[in-house]
Amino acid sequence: MDDQQKCPYCGELIKSKATKCRFCGEWLIQKTQPGGNDSESHIKWALAEKYEIQQEVGHGGMAVVYKAIQKNLDRVVALKILPQQFTHDKEFLERFHREARQAARLSHPNIVAIYDEGIENGVHYIAMEFLDGIDLHALIKQKRYLSIEQAINYISPIAEALEYAHLRGIVHRDIKSANIIVTNSGRPVLTDFGIAFAASGTKLTNPGAVVGTPEYMSPEQAEGAGIDGRSDIFSLGIVLFESVTGQVPFKGDNPITTIYKIVHDNPVSPKSLRKDIPIWFEGVITKCLFKNPSNRFQRGTELSEALRKQKSIDLNIVDGRSRTIKISSKIANLRKEKQSISFSGILISVIIILIAILSFLVLRPGSEPSSQVFSNSVGDEDFKDGNWNKFQGFEKGRIKTLLDEAAALYSKNNLVNPPGKNAVEIYKEVLRLHSTNVTALQRLDNILKDLINKAEGELAGNNSDQAKSIYQQVSRYYPDNSELRNLEKRIYVSPLEKRLQEYVAQEYEVNVAYDYIQDILKIDPDNNIASTALKNIYNRYQSEGEKAFVSGKWSRAADLFRDGLKYFRDDNNFSVKLSESQQKIKVQSAQEKINRTLSQADNCLRSADWDCALSRYAEVLQLSPGNPRATNYKDRVLEAITRLGDTQREKKDYEAAVQTYGKALELNPDNKLLKIKRSEAELKK
Fold first, then answer.
1. Cis peptide before 418 (omega within 30 of 0)
2. Is the confidence at residue 383, as pLDDT, over 70?
3. What b/e string do you get for 217-247 counting C-beta neighbours within 10 Å, with b at 16 or more?
């Protein structure tokens, strides 16, 4: 067998003489990084300029996590490194970095903070808050299971954090107990945004494959269908189940059987595993784990509120035939009892048999589906498009049943509420089955117009809170509608515009005005008022800074350009002008010091403090070589000393004259005239 080595990029065993890894495709020649021949050494080398990697703290299928020091800020971070085997898929990398940037915009105490992301020397990384604590999965294993109070304290904040992310268009997709860290202070923090979503839809997964952890997947995620925030609610329900029982509700011998159970089986009753679980708590878990997303909690705050207030839950279960069975919270237990068959179970069996017989009669070989079998409460115009004949008889019956149910809700004005049981959701379900259904399309359009008009009326009556409530309810179901976007602008942007204009009129504080501008532009990127105000802020800093610069007020100019960069970080003009101003300040400061020292030297000279004068003039030459006032400073001092000696001799103060001429000779020992003058003064002394 040939000698083998580990690939420094993916860690797989390859031949020692290999020039290219057969697993990850990396070339192994022309690499000059120092250190050992392993992936960790390569990572340390690649990120050495920014990070000092201390130790590995976690390892998963899609990332390796290291504890590291961010050098420029001297802070501890967790570095998530993407293994090399994932770096050859361009689409995956684009999604990985895009989702990291999106997650970095999340600022919530129960979501891990993202500090940085990027690529250095081929290593793709995310730098995030380092959490000192234990993951919830390990904590559950330590304790066997958590108390009800502990479960509420850990899961409620995570539910609220999920709603915060969902409202910003981010679905986690990999909620599990191992992705929740409980810090040493007891704060639960959700980690691992982005990677699972980055992998979905790329060639790293096979067609129809799903990304995530099987035991925690929602049914729609397991089936590879489209998902929204309610999928995270299902997964968090599994974590809630696990927290109080010590096990997950769906567990097979392998991932395939686990996924089958999630899609088809009811969860085991938590109370059958732990007798002291309250009925209301079991009801909360059950509502999280409904197969139909419409029957679950629709928002994280609903789940959090139910846990914190210990609410009993009325469970509405919609089966495959759109028949609703209401189960009281007192009998929320979904375990199958073998003692007797309930009346509702018999009724379901009878309905199934009747549907089977009806389908056989209607769809027997050689026959065509007959619309007369079904209710005539829906107009025939719904079914005249070419797609209608493609449906089986049972599917047609289901569509008509849904339309009848939606019409009843429509007549009761249950348009968008309550979540999971309103006209809009059912009409959308109709369109999912029959995309050109006229009634569903018209009713959805009418509902949107009616609610927009209602919100407009609330705005006209200065009831902006009610208008906001209507908008928030409607926007869940019509996320990309242009009319709703206009309504959003009128609800949120108009008050912001008014406040912004007030600040403009009153010589506003820039930081407050800038915040208003950013809030407006997030909703309405083309808003003229905000754009004009932003341009005025820019022009103010630019014009006042230029004026100060030209007039020689370098410090004032630097302050203005520095403030401008706070709001326009990528503006090269401000950066250049700030640098020029700082250079001018430096030169000005040096010149001021030179002038100050020259003045001190002149004062010393006038006061006959010759040593002081000599010292100051020498200092000037060090600061400004060739300075004309200091170049021949010894001659100037010598001349001043000689003049003083001459004056003393004229006043017949021969003793002082001898001392003064002696000081002059120290500067110029060979000066014959000074020697003669000193000799004459000594003779006359």
1. yes
2. no
3. bbbbbbeeeebebbbbbbbbbbbbbbbbbee
User: What is the pLDDT averaged over residues 631-654?
Assistant: 85
Please state, in angstroms and rounded to a whole number, the distance separating the CA atoms of residues 389 and 371.
10
Of residues 96 and 612, the one with the higher pLDDT is: 612
Q: String of b and e for 514-549 (b: at least 16 CB within 10 Å)?
A: bebbebbbeebeebebbeebbeebbeebbebbeebb
3-state secondary structure of 643: helix
**Confidence check: pLDDT of 337 > 60:** no
Instruction: Enter the DSSP assignment of 37.
Output: S
Q: What is the pLDDT of residue 355?
A: 42
The type of residue at 635 is D
Residue among 397, 468, 399 nearest 437 (CA) = 399
Assign 99 to helix, strand or coil.
Answer: helix
Give me the residue label for tokens 């179970």: 345
Using DSSP, state whether 535 is helix, strand or coil: helix
Task: Please name which of 65, 25, 13 lies closest in space to residue 43, comparing C-alpha atoms.
Answer: 65
In this predicted model, which residue has the larger pLDDT, 344 or 238? Answer: 238
User: What secondary structure letter does DSSP report for 113?
Assistant: P
Predicted local distance difference test score (pLDDT) of residue 505: 62
Catalytic residue among 38, 74, 174, 228: 174
Structure tokens at 563: 């403030």
Higher pLDDT, 382 or 578: 578
Dihedral sign, Cα of residue 19, residue 20, residue 26, residue 27: positive
Assess whether 646 carries a catalytic annotation.
no
